[in-house]
Amino acid sequence: MQGIVKTFDIGDGRSISIETGRLAKQADGAVVVKMGDTMLLATVVARKEAGENVDFMPLSVEYREKYAAAGRFPGGFFKREARPSDYEILIARLVDRALRPLFPDDFHAETQVIITLISADENILPDALAGLAASAALAVSDIPFNGPISEVRVARIDGKFVVNPHTKDIPLADLDIMVAASMDNIMMVEGEMKEVSEADMIEAIKFAHEHIKIQCRAQLELAAMVEKANPKRTYCHETNDAELKERLHAFAYQRIVDIASNPTAKHERSDAFAAIKEEFIATLDPEEAKEKEFMISRYYHDVEKEAVRNVILDKRQRLDGRKLDQIRPIWCEVDYLPAVHGSAIFTRGETQSLTTVTLGTKLDEQVIDGAVIEEKINFILHYNFPPFSTGEVKRIMGTSRREIGHGNLALRALTPMIPNGEENPYTIRVVSDILESNGSSSMATVCAGTMALMDAGVKIRKPVSGIAMGLISDTKTSRFAVLSDILGDEDHLGDMDFKVTGTVDGITACQMDIKVDGMPYEVLAQALEQAKAGRLHILGEMMKAISTPREDYKPHVPRIVKMTIPKEFIGAVIGPGGKVIQEMQRETGSTIVIEEVGDFGIIDIVSNNKESIEAVKDKIKRIVAIPEIGTVYHGVVKNITTFGAFVEVLPGKDGLLHISEIEHRRLDKVESALKVGDEIDVKLIDIDSKTGKLKLSRKVLLPKPEPDQK
């Protein structure tokens, strides 16, 4: 069966095809997006009616990868795909954030988007195609959606911007961002950079938008060929009472303005706003109040949003009394936890992170075993957001998608500054526990993470700080206010959440979500410059606590010493069944990790004891040593025969000490001079050219006896 296919050039000679009408036809919308050999199946289904008293968009986005798509078996005992990986969750979040703002405000039917990787091209990453696939599925459905949108990856490689680069080229990039947009507006930006400028970032976003427009036009052309997509379904998900709405506005607006105009703390302010709503409800007939309780809450939220935004736009003043570009008070402390490898507290206003650093070995590396990506990671960052941080009681379940997303942003911010190779022999784990939250806790994690790394003695290249920016705008009057270091309320009621991290020399990561149409690039440029000033201010406060990495690691941190040996000696160091390496670990109390890299074996010797490290080094040197004629060895007698003794001069290397070479006097039996286990010095006097056998002498090291005097 043939479906409807739209194929287009992405702008550089490569093409993408979108097919519908062939697979998953019972879904409201379904497409297969193909680029190279990478194929994604995206489906969307929405309920016909909304649930009772729903005033939000119940959207769920799932991204899953089939291991068969890459010709692989899933790991684990059951050999089937299970819970989504962090990588899958992060891709789903990217798509969700791009789609969610474009559903009609009054459309509240539960909607589910499922994107599945069904074929994997190792050189074309599927994450850059997931947004296109989801939007195309909506475009060919009858579900109301103010799209289309699409997402692209932009990387700068050798000074040139590339859209959806090949997988092998991404490590060469100094800028790697994912951008989502509609035909007219940027919706979402997320990515990492190697200290790029604000101007470069804006150019990358503009470059992305031009290529996204190509993909949006292709979706519109495809939708025009699908009968089901035209027209979209009708719906009525809200019941309204215009008279009640007007009464509530008249009662509450000025009261909210008065509270918003006077600085208050988070809980004091929320209590005051809630009291206004209760005062209004008290003016109503009890039956009407009960009947229209849900409607009142929705209307009150709209009035609160309008009033707070107008206070900020009119008075250029924030809810807590700050100026638009003012950063909340900051205090920092390092080395707070004496038993950990590194720790820091970063507190900014009512947001606080307690962050720890743990230094481990290669055995602690995280193994990524995905359908597409297989790798080992030696820098790990975990972010925890317990309910007490916002003064709430909630059931603690597994790690939330929000925690995974915020942790990933902080990870990307710090990764460019983590030393590699000889500069950093450790696997590093950073854990941020958010103890208070009112404003960006992910940016607090970046700041606390930087300080904790320096406290642990990790030689980071430069300190990194982060800030969350907001925007309040009025398109009718062209007024706008860019807010530095936003509060939770300002994020919720605002038009933009823009997180930027970086060093004194440039941006290392960003995450931006825009909730308003038509934000000019000039406003974005102002937000970036204001963010830079804020970042540098925060960095200055951090430097008061710690400005450079500690000269040495804490006393209780395990030391790691690296050795490099020719790869042909790896087997000798490990020994049969691991016997040699296990014996070395038992004798010295060290941990020894060895791996083959190219033509060499790279050995990590881990111990808190310098002497044990030196003992391991000496043993390994002896194992890999090549016997040299004329060298004196301190060996152990391993076996005795009638014609001599076999002496181990190097680990696993025995030589023959002939009976005539034991002493200057003539011996009848070897046992009269030696026994098994004796430690003696011997000299290597010859190596058989054919067999490689070693010939040893002890007597050449002994003084010659004086001749008998008669």
The coarse overall form would be: elongated
Q: Largest beta sheet, briefly?
A: 8 strands, antiparallel
Q: Care to count the β-strands?
A: 29
Return residue spans where pLDDT drops below 50 for at least 5 consecutive residues: none
Task: Quickly give the structural class.
Answer: alpha+beta
Q: If strands are numbered along the chain, what order do they take across the biggest sheet?
A: 8-7-9-10-21-20-18-19
Q: Radius of gyration over alpha carbons?
A: 34 Å
* Quaternary state of the chains: single chain
- Count of helices? 14
Query: Helix fraction?
Result: 25-40%
Strand proportion:
25-35%
Instruction: State the separation between the terminal residues, measured CA to CA.
Output: 116 Å
Mean pLDDT: 92
Give the SSE layout.
Elements (H helix, E strand, L loop, with lengths): L3 E6 L5 E6 L8 E7 L2 E9 L12 E7 L20 H14 L11 E9 L7 H13 L9 E9 L2 E4 L11 E8 L3 E11 L1 H27 L17 H19 L5 H17 L3 H6 L1 H23 L14 E5 L7 E7 L2 E10 L5 E4 L4 E4 L1 E6 L16 H14 L12 E10 L4 H15 L9 E10 L4 E6 L3 H6 L2 E8 L2 E9 L6 H23 L15 E8 L3 H5 L4 H10 L2 E7 L2 E8 L2 H15 L7 E9 L3 E7 L2 E6 L20 E9 L6 E4 L13
Parallel strand pairs: 5-6, 16-17, 27-29
Antiparallel strand pairs: 1-2, 2-3, 3-4, 4-6, 7-8, 7-9, 9-10, 10-21, 11-12, 12-13, 13-17, 14-15, 18-19, 18-20, 20-21, 22-24, 23-24, 25-26, 25-28, 26-27, 28-29
